[in-house]
Amino acid sequence: MTAPSLFRDRVLPVLTVVFAILVVWHVFVVYLNAPFVRDQAARANETVSFGQLVERTFAQERPVLPAPHQVIAELWDTTVNKAITSKRSLVYHAGVTLSATLLGFAIGTALGILLAIGIVHNRAMDRSLMPWVIASQTIPILAIAPMIIVVLNSVGISGILPKALISTYLSFFPIVVGMVKGLRSPDTILLDLMHTYNASPGQTFWKLRWPASMPYLFTSLKVAIAISLLGAIVAELPTGAVAGLGARLLSGSYYGQTIQIWAALFMAAALAAVLVTLVGIAHVKVLQRMGVKP
């Protein structure tokens, strides 16, 4: 057997996928932006060579598909060259969205764990509530978000809470499903062993079910934190928000600023990656405290 290699086993596959994405991206930049270049050349009675066509497709002010260097330049300009407090800074907008994301994630986590505990320990809740939990996710978030925002605004609730509730609506589901599976993961022989010790339901929960559910919980949290961010972004769209990544996407759509839209999308992806990584680090730390090798 060959010795494991960090570069060959982890770095090289990622670089290969990134390289393939960049190649496809560049090809589609030329393909999607070429009609505009040809149309402009035809209006000017100009003949455009292939080299000129490629050059102009990568330098359009409002391209159909921005080139990678245009997105990177926009990200640099709106993060490094702008003050964090500026409303043109992506860091500022990311912070606005992050606040609603974390609040919704916290509420969704608490709600999901409580529902999972009730479902596992109460047969009536298992048969009645679990189907409704699953059915709740069949409603498109784009359809329900405006209704929630409008209803809450009509009763005087506005600001961060309505956006957080949209994040809660999305994030509680994977936690409920994961925790139900995790709390039921101990083998029957282990549950019987706790009975022979005359353990109370509380002791069985804290000493057996809860530790066994930790891997399931953190796997669910990684999914929940990502879709909680998505929920916060979606919640900003129907409110006409002036701050947040969703507002940035909306304003870019209004004025045809595709480069701005793509920069906001990349910022959202980077923010989600950071949040998932932080949950992963917490997962490793918790397992280490429990005596499990990562």
From TrEMBL:
Gene3D superfamilies: MetI-like. It is found in: Cell membrane. It is a multi-pass membrane protein. It comes from the Bacteria. GO terms for biological process: transmembrane transport. Its main location: membrane. Keywords: Cell membrane, Membrane, Transmembrane, Transmembrane helix, Transport. The chain crosses the membrane at residues 12-32, 90-117, 129-152, 216-239, 259-284. PROSITE patterns: ABC_TM1 (PS50928). Residues 90-283 form the ABC transmembrane type-1 domain. GO terms for cellular component: plasma membrane. Belongs to the binding-protein-dependent transport system permease family. This is ABC transporter permease. It comes from Rhizobium terricola.
